[in-house]
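User: quick one, fold this
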Amino acid sequence: MRIYLYLIAGLTSALLGWNLGQFLLTDLGFLSSFPEIVLFPCMAIALASGMVLNEIFVSSPTRPKLCLRKAIIPILIALGLGLGFGLVGGLISQIVLFPFIPIPRWLVRILSWLLIGIAVGMAEGLTWRWKSVEAGNKHRFRRRFRASVMGGATASLIAALLFELIRNTPNLPSGFRLVEDPLGFAILGLLLGLTFAITGSPSYLVALRAGAGFEYTGREFAYAQSVLTIEEEITQANSGIEPEQELDGEEEELAAGLIKQKVKQLPARRTSTRPKKPKIQNSSLKFLPEIEGEEEDVIEEGLSIQLPAKATLTIGSDPDSDIYIPDIFPHVADLVMENRQALLKPKLQSIDGITINGSRIHSAKSISLKHNYLLTFFSINEDGINEDKYYRFVYYNRFLDPQA
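Assistant:
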């Protein structure tokens, strides 16, 4: 489905750009003596904007308002790049087409289309920074930018060569010359759409997304919640007292006693022993998006843990576990990553503390994880499995845009 959307976007953008150029040249007579200077910027702007908009909406198809908000800066960048490269391509075409400059027309067309493809590729690559948090990784951003520019240039080069091959085919119908320009730009749009469907495909990032059970419940949070509760109770107790009404001795003593009693109920703000928190303890693991701070290794609800391409990771409450989760079995399972495949290998003594997609497992046999699988690890106490306290992950092997 994704590839069809890109093909449709490329074709539609190309035809819109061509029609816009014809409207300016024919209906308005704008620079009609220099058609390439008008037509090529229109094509470059339409294709660059169309590709950028298409990727934004494909990444978040159910949130159109969010897509429109995110699209403002990328569209401005696409407009600027399309206009700049389009003008350069148009000027080159217009100049070299003068009779006294002996340059073949097919070579001029290839060069101009190449500039359009580079403009579209640069727009698609640069605007990725505003479309995905993955672009925060400089290595991935550079790789994506190079792939976009090279892909756009290659697609436009192939489109120009293919168009020249078609138009130089012998015995073409006489009416072909009337539609050769829109046909050529349609081929350009289709090939650009196909290229960006490949270079901009969803990143294959294997990840575990933290869900229920990983909510933040630190002591500072408990203290703040208790203070708010006491303030509400005291406000309610005083709600029947007029602002200028003075309390008698007995009422004042009762109010002071209420405050002292409630303050004693506050949890200690600082203790010598910090509460145990789930965290990652392996240098090959990191969060997406990356976080910084004193607790940058603590797993919290909503964070996604990017998993390495090849590794064996231990999960459990053992202090040396790669993915440390308090109160569950010391070594509940291993997560084996290899060749775009993830295997969960439960430990025999821990199988009662694991469910996959809500179903208990009954053996220590390796489980091949698939996209959107739900992994739940239950805590244990002196009575055995504690089903009231659990930690849940969602496994992804096609990690789509985390902002989507």
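User: anything notable?
Assistant: The CA atoms of residues 139 and 337 lie 22 Å apart.
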